[in-house]
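Appendix B. One record, verbatim.
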Amino acid sequence: MFDHSEYQQAMENVIERFKSEMQKVRTGRAHPDMLAGVKVEAYGQYMPLNQVANITAGDATMLLITPFDPSTIQSIASAIRADQTLGLNPADDGRVIRVPVPPLTEERRKEIVKTASTKVEEGKVALRKIRDDARKELKAAEDLSEDVKKRGEKEVDELIKNFSGKIDELFKAKESEIMKI
């Protein structure tokens, strides 16, 4: 019998990675995950923003960043400004950094959807690679009959179809969230 559980787990990992990529995509609403990729120079090294500060959404158009150590305020603000994909301009009052999130233009929304669609393709390519690995393992397995190999291939293809559909669903939801004004 062919055990495809390790391949299913790998596919689930692809979906989780895709979800986290989609959370980073800006939608026009202030969301703490928008800043997930920001690295801040603190204590002589680069650290993820969430390790040096608390990030909250004040409302739909404002992020509030409260540094654990007030001496890191300038480097946090600089790191956010330096990330060109965000296009945000933080302001600090010495204790808290306020990051206004401007509304997206129609053109910018379309750009973001296009960028997100490349992530869809990357996810599907990763799924196809897993399918190819499973097929290679099936072909190499000499102790399995042809019927079992064919059934294993069909099961893997069905998994790929389901996981690919999940990626499409997640993208469609994100696309409608981005395009909603």
